[in-house]
Design the sequence.
């Protein structure tokens, strides 16, 4: 166990720690790894760097000493039940999340939520500042902690600060709704490097900074005015600090997915899944957290209409939908679950037979082995997000398809669409277009499937999560405070 005065050269800060506390039936407590995009992405980096991870353990009022889990020092930030409700469920998941995802659901603005957000961000910043060694590097993750970079810089000007936004950054017209828009921008600008998923996110951010704060930007840099006499002088004659705001598309640990996909027991499980579904000609799959951004209803509507039109029958095609439970205490998510389950019930009620179901719906989380078996069992992967920072599911599906088969239907509103151009790209709002694309995917000749999947695989295997973190950390190393500003030509 690390003692509480231990210092680390590399510290990751995120809302959630990469562990869950589980209580067994006999009442004993233990720690378990938790799934999710961020954990999947950062675990290998942390293990390789012997780093510390600062975050919340997922339960209110849980205080414990730091401990080491799979080579990562786990450093807790406790939250009270009221803070969880205001900072996390409220401001993070009911204000920022819908605002940053194109207001698909209406964001709620509450001043007490904002106050809790400020207070909790300060606690994360203080904890990270306490455990980071002189001249160390701190990498802050995601929208729950956008004020942390500025707070850190105020306490620890010696450290290098990175921030990565896993979700989209909205266009100015939408971002401007936020009553605390300036504070958020200033909070982020405390970082040396601000990473986004897509180039569009980075330009949305720079535009917001120009319009709302009036700072000069020369892509990909932002010039933040500072008081520091030793700071370099900008073209406008001001002392400035230069912040890099750029896209670093996140990825997956592709090799580990390939390994799982090569395992005979997992391949056998994939066959068993198909048999369990009554061996339809085509198995289609959706895997998402149960979230309104993921377009689950749009996908079900398209599939239901294909059955209604008689273009598909349940012997031809089954849709397997894994909707892992998410944010169940937030009202919008409760309503969404009801709507989705109503749709599943209707479609199955209308079209399922005694031997074939239409939508095989699972409101569960599964072990990764089972997810890989599902990917292998699926002829068509449906990623129909209305807005998504990246979408790792799309990349995971591609990584496991060592057979170069399978078709990825991918929303152009997912960050992954910028890279995975050989997928069948769709606009999920266009239900007619989505139906036609699904039919084209079902009917696609093997040769075309192989050509597309080969290209997709090359992209994902060559750009894995190790490359993502290496390029972000390289950028951090390059942009230290006090660097000269290169004059524009
Ligand atoms: C955010 C951004 C961005 C899901 N259900 C189970 C399970 N999962 C895993 C998937 C995948 C991950 O969770 C989900 O990642 P996504 O990228 O699809 O989506 P978000 O959770 O919304 O993640 C997103 C990401 O951050 C990373 O930056 O791409 O845009 O919204 O890895 O496989 N894993 C297991 N059982 C499940 O039931 N084991």
Sequence:
């Amino acid at each position: 166990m690390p003692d509480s005065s231990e210092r680390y050269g590399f510290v990751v800060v995120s809302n959630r720690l990469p562990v869950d506390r589980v209580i067994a039936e006999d009442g004993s407590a233990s720690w378990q790894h938790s799934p999710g995009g961020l954990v999947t992405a950062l675990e290998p980096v942390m293990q390789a760097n012997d780093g510390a991870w600062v975050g919340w353990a997922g339960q209110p009022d849980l205080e414990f000493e730091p401990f080491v889990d799979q080579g990562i020092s786990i450093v807790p930030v406790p939250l009270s039940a009221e803070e969880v409700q205001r900072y996390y469920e409220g401001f993070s998941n009911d204000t920022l999340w819908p605002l940053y995802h194109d207001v698909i659901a209406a964001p709620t603005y509450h001043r007490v939520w904002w106050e809790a957000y400020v207070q909790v961000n300060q606690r994360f910043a203080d904890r990270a500042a306490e455990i980071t060694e002189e001249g160390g590097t701190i990498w802050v993750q995601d929208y729950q902690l956008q004020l942390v970079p500025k707070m850190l810089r105020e306490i620890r000007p010696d450290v290098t600060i990175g921030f990565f936004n896993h979700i989209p950054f909205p266009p100015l017209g939408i971002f401007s709704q936020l009553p605390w828009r300036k504070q958020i921008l200033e909070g982020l600008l405390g970082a040396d490097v601000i990473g986004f998923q897509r180039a569009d996110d980075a330009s949305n951010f720079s535009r917001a900074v120009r319009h709302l704060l009036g700072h000069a930007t020369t892509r990909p840099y932002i010039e933040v005015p500072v008081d520091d006499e030793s700071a370099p002088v900008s073209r406008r004659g001001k002392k400035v600090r230069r912040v890099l705001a750029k896209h670093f598309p996140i990825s997956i640990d592709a090799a580990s997915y390939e390994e799982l996909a090569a395992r005979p027991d997992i391949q056998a499980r994939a066959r068993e899944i198909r048999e369990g579904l009554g061996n339809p000609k085509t198995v289609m799959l959706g895997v998402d957290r149960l979230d309104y951004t993921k377009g689950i209803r749009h996908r079900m509507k398209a599939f239901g209409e294909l059955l209604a039109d008689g273009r598909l029958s349940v012997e031809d095609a089954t849709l397997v939908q894994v909707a892992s439970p998410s944010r169940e205490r937030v009202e919008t998510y409760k309503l969404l679950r009801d709507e989705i389950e109503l749709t599943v019930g209707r479609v199955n009620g209308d079209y399922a037979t005694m031997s074939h179901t239409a939508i095989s719906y699972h409101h569960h989380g599964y072990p990764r082995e089972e997810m890989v078996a599902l990917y292998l069992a699926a002829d068509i992967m449906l990623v129909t997000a209305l807005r998504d920072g990246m979408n790792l599911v799309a990349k995971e599906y591609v990584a496991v398809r060592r057979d170069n088969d399978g078709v990825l239907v991918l929303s152009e509103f997912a960050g992954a669409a910028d890279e995975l151009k050989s997928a069948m790209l769709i606009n999920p709002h266009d239900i007619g277009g989505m139906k036609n694309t699904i039919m084209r995917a079902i009917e696609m000749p093997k040769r075309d499937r192989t050509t597309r999947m080969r290209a997709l695989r090359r992209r994902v295997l060559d750009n894995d999560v190790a490359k993502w973190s290496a390029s972000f950390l390289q950028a951090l190393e390059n942009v230290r405070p006090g660097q000269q500003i290169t004059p524009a030509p």
In short: The radius of gyration is 23 Å. The first strand starts at residue 8 and ends at 16. The chain has two domains: 8-250+471-479, 254-462. DSSP finds 16 helices and 18 strands in the chain.
